């Protein structure tokens, strides 16, 4: 129970540092360090590129007796991608994931000058 509380506290601290950004969608592949591979979908705490993020997600693991997982992760969001490391509470294992993220560049608010 202490692991869960500490994980939630750590992720909330990361998420609170990025409260000005919008959340982002993430879809990718996951590896449970018990040897399981899966497909994962998550919500990232920020849609900004080149920033640290917290994430909450669900994963479907192939060929396991319990195929579903729910994880809390932290990582780094890049240009339309993210890399995360977290803990899966249903699989009871550390996970790593990488994939596509709906991020936005800080300079995307540029508008051309008017005549």
Task: Provide a descriptive summary of the structure in words.
This protein is mainly β and 115 residues long. The chain is built from 1 helix and 6 strands. The protein has one helix at residues 2-16, and strands at 24-32, 36-44, 51-61, 68-78, 81-88, 93-101. The chain has a 6-stranded antiparallel β-barrel with strand order 1-2-3-4-5-6. β3 (51-61) and β4 (68-78) form a beta hairpin. The radius of gyration is 16 Å and the shape is elongated. 32% of the residues are buried.
The overall pLDDT, averaged over residues, is 86
The profile of the biggest β sheet is: 6 strands, antiparallel, barrel
- The termini sit apart by 62 Å
Question: Stretches where pLDDT falls below 50 for ≥5 residues?
Answer: none
Kindly summarize this structure in a few lines:
This protein is about 15% helix and about 50% strand. With about 120 residues, it is mainly beta. The N and C termini lie far apart (about 60 Å).
């Amino acid at each position: 129970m202490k692991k869960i509380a500490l994980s939630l506290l750590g992720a909330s601290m990361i998420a609170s540092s990025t409260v000005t950004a919008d959340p982002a969608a993430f879809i990718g592949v996951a590896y449970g360090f018990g040897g399981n591979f899966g497909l994962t979908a998550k919500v990232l705490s920020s849609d900004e590129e080149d920033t640290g993020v917290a994430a909450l997600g669900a994963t479907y693991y192939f060929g396991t007796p319990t195929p579903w997982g729910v994880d809390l992760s932290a990582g780094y969001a890049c240009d339309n991608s993210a890399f995360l490391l977290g803990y899966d509470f249903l699989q009871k294992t550390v996970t790593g994931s990488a994939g596509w993220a709906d991020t936005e560049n800080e300079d995307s608010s540029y508008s051309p000058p008017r005549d």
